[in-house]
Design brief:
The chain is of the alpha/beta class. It has helices at residues 3-17, 24-35, 64-72, 86-95, 122-128, 158-161, 251-265, 298-319, 396-404, 421-424, 498-514; strands spanning 39-45, 74-76, 79-80, 132-138, 165-169, 181-182, 185-186, 196-198, 228-229, 232-233, 237-239, 271-276, 326-332, 375-378, 386-388, 392-393, 434-437, 444-447, 450-453, 479-482. The structure holds 2-acetamido-2-deoxy-6-O-sulfo-beta-D-galactopyranose and calcium ion. 2-acetamido-2-deoxy-6-O-sulfo-beta-D-galactopyranose binds at residues 46-47, 85-86, 106, 140, 172, 174, 223, 281-282, 334, 340-341, 464.
């Protein structure tokens, strides 16, 4: 980008943020901004905790590529995924709405498409401004209409949600089908060896983990003990498709290559890439070249692998001369977990590493580490390096970017998203007033220094959390923590502040009913 254009862009951004008067000059400059829409790359890591990267405090693993983004962009310290699990967080990122509104839950690998095809989405919004849109990596938002034939076009899917291009791991690494889908078609499928998938009965002739634990590379819990593929038992059963099966060790190279191909193809026009990694979700099988990169076993090595992947994307943008005009957002879909079904030494080798950083809980939980994740916004030359403690949600990307590229958002669109462009670009530290945090149990609420967790009114005590070593933070009574003094949520002061308990309970009820 030339210097003059850069100056114009910078001025335009500042004007947008400061609500400059609509003089002709400003309009012209805003037009320049509109006409030179930045590319947007969202790098979405799976299950990466606040404390898992070195710029956020990790010392047992080094993440130089992510740190480069953090030290030259805005490093957010109070940014959140909408939920403590994957499917609702992804739903929210793409729709700007909470997952609880449609009762979004972790999906099976043969679940129907969760996002209604007439719903406005982030990629559809960007397409209105002429963006080419692509998704590469983990999807986990369902596919088809409830009765998928994996051997023909698998639709509706990403195309109906607004993506021009898709290369997918359909659900999760630990769920069948263990194949790639490119633009709705299974890659390398032999028509004489069709694929079937079932989560109800055991289909096909492949051995399962239940019957043949001796064939496994990692011991697994019962839920992860169905069809064995690549030496790992998965959730769900699957027959056929031998030629199309993925090899987990190749994820890093394959997804990186597909993401780079999309960037190259679209280098001449504005593009949005949703680059959604498998790492560092289970099963953790990084490429052998990363083996031993840390002393923490596969989980640590997977962190190094995903840092490498991130570096490849940055280098490619630089090689193509696109870096200055590309916004990279790096973040995670939920907090960290160690043993999530497989014995991969993640617990035994954790040492002094703290995946949740200073926070309590992790994936699934209502405590902070469930949703408070690393989030970095990087836009060289436009953004000044800084750290921001603004309370911000990944849902806010929707309306903030709509503002940046001047697309109108309808009244019923992205209803939980807030326009916080100035916070996202580092011009202000003012974030949200309230943020509802979704867990697998009751809702929690952030408001200023306060963290409130609603009582668990159900009879579900989530017994499966304990063996995973996870603190859900679910209690029959209300919990209130003052994060300004008690960042680790140890000291429940709800009984001392009944007025705040009542107020926050009402705020949650209101958000659920009518929004923010
Ligand atoms: C759970 C799986 C877990 C993981 C998770 C989804 C158990 C017993 N099993 O059902 O291994 O796959 O779903 O993770 O908890 S997520 O990051 O995609 O939400
Ligand atoms: Ca996840």
């Amino acid at each position: 980008m030339n210097k003059k254009l850069l100056l114009t862009l910078t001025t335009s951004v500042i004007c947008l943020l400061n609500a400059c008067s609509q003089s002709d000059d400003v309009l012209t400059e805003q037009k320049s901004l509109k006409d030179n829409k930045p590319n947007i790359v969202v790098i979405y890591i799976d299950d990466l905790g606040y404390g898992d990267v070195s710029s956020y405090g990790a010392t047992a693993v080094s993440t130089p590529n992510i740190d480069r983004l953090a030290y030259n962009g805005i490093k957010f310290t109070d940014a959140h995924s909408s939920a403590a699990t994957c499917t609702p967080s992804r739903y929210s990122l793409l729709t700007g709405e909470h997952g609880f509104r449609i009762k979004a839950d972790v999906l099976k690998g043969d679940a129907p498409l969760l996002i209604s095809t007439n719903k406005p989405t982030l990629p559809k919004m960007l397409k209105k401004a002429g963006y080419a849109t692509g998704v590469v990596g983990k999807w986990h938002l369902g596919l088809g209409d409830g009765n998928i034939d994996w051997n023909s076009d698998v639709t509706p899917g990403p195309s109906e949600v607004g993506f021009d291009y898709s290369f997918l791991l359909p659900a999760t690494g630990d769920r069948v089908p263990t194949i790639y889908l490119e633009n709705n078609r299974i890659v390398n499928l032999d028509v004489n060896d069709p694929i079937s998938v079932s989560y109800k009965e055991n289909i096909g002739k492949r051995p399962t983990g239940v019957e043949h634990p001796e064939l496994l590379r990692y011991a697994a819990d019962r839920q992860h003990s169905d069809t064995i593929i690549n030496g790992v038992s998965r959730i769900g059963t699957m027959s056929g498709g031998e030629q199309a099966l993925w090899k987990d060790e190749d994820f890093a190279d394959i997804f990186t290559n597909k993401a780079i191909a999309f960037i190259r193809k679209n280098k001449a026009n504005p593009f949005f890439l949703f680059h959604s990694y498998h790492d560092i979700h289970v099963p953790r099988l990084p490429h052998p070249r990363f083996k031993g990169a840390t002393k923490m076993g596969p989980r640590g090595d997977a962190i190094v692998q995903m840092d490498w992947m991130t570096g490849q994307i940055i280098s490619e943008l630089e090689r193509l001369g696109l870096a200055d005009n590309t916004i990279i957002i790096f973040t995670s879909d939920n907090g960290p977990v160690l043993n999530d079904g497989y014995e991969d030494q993640s617990v035994a080798l954790i040492g002094s590493h703290k995946p949740s950083g200073p926070f309590r809980g992790g994936k699934y939980s209502a405590f902070e580490a469930g949703t408070r994740v690393p989030m970095i916004v990087y836009w060289p030359n436009i953004i000044k390096p800084s750290q921001s403690n603004a309370l911000i949600s990944q849902m806010d990307i929707y309306k903030s970017f709509a503002k940046l590229i001047d697309v109108d958002v309808g009244i019923d669109e992205a209803i939980d998203s807030q326009q916080l462009l100035s916070a996202l670009l580092g011009y202000s530290q003012r974030g949200r007033k309230h943020l509802l945090e979704e867990s697998v149990g009751p809702h929690a609420l952030r408001s200023g220094q306060w963290k409130y967790i609603s009582p668990n009114k159900s009879n579900n005590n989530f017994p499966w959390l304990k063996p995973k070593g996870i603190e859900g933070g679910f209690a029959k009574y209300p919990q209130l923590y003052d994060l300004s003094k008690d960042i680790n949520e140890q000291n429940n002061i709800a009984t001392e502040h009944p007025e705040l308990v009542e107020k926050f309970e009402m705020v949650i009820t209101n958000i659920v009913k009518v929004g923010y």
